[in-house]
Automatic annotation (TrEMBL):
SUPFAM superfamilies: HAD-like. This is FCP1 homology domain-containing protein. Residues 121-181 form the FCP1 homology domain. PROSITE patterns: FCP1.
Length: 181
């Protein structure tokens, strides 16, 4: 005897599962492609490689005047559907440009020289760089008063003594540091 076909509800669930898998696979592929493009190509290379595709996908499709309404609809629907990958590429390029600009602010020095040139008489003097936070000063927090900054014992004498032998540079990696000197 022939096997009975599965009930329509079972077919519907199978199709829905297949559609979910397809959407997940497309999303995972897009993320993987963006990750590879970010790793393998610079922003300008990605822009150049996708420029032709973006122009082609945004160019209107010529439709003959005597074409049927279905043909006109199909051409317009294709044009509209192709705007999605173009918009996704442009969004990727914009986000990547913003991220790269932000990263440059942290990876590139603010100026070509971090310290000014020494006076010609002081050319043989070494530079001593000292961290302000937890080396020269100590931060303490208490519930009653909040944060308070204290100089470590002997800091002033240490800096005065080091200044006789070195060019002393004090730095801090804290964004907002209140000095107590």
């Amino acid at each position: 005897a022939a096997a009975a076909p599965p009930p329509p509800a079972a077919r519907k669930g199978w199709v829905r599962g297949l559609l979910k898998f397809g959407v997940f696979a497309a999303f995972a592929g897009a993320i993987g492609g963006a990750g590879y493009a970010t790793h393998a190509y610079s922003l300008s290379e990605v822009d150049k490689k996708t420029l032709e595709f973006r122009k082609e996908m945004t160019t209107p499709i010529p439709v003959a005047e005597d074409a049927s309404e279905f043909e006109k609809f199909r051409a317009r629907a294709y044009e509209t559907a192709m705007k999605v990958p173009v918009a996704a590429i442009e969004l990727y390029l914009e986000i990547r440009a913003r991220i790269e600009d932000h990263v440059v602010g942290f990876t590139e020095p603010a100026s070509d020289k971090l310290l000014p040139d020494l006076h010609p008489d002081d050319q043989n003097i070494f530079t001593l760089v000292v961290d302000l936070t937890d080396t020269l000063v100590c931060n303490d927090w208490q519930r009653e008063r909040g944060w308070k900054t204290f100089k470590r014992p002997g800091v002033e004498a240490f800096l005065q003594h080091m200044a006789t032998m070195y060019e002393v540079v004090v730095y801090s990696d804290q964004v907002q540091m209140v000095s107590c000197f």
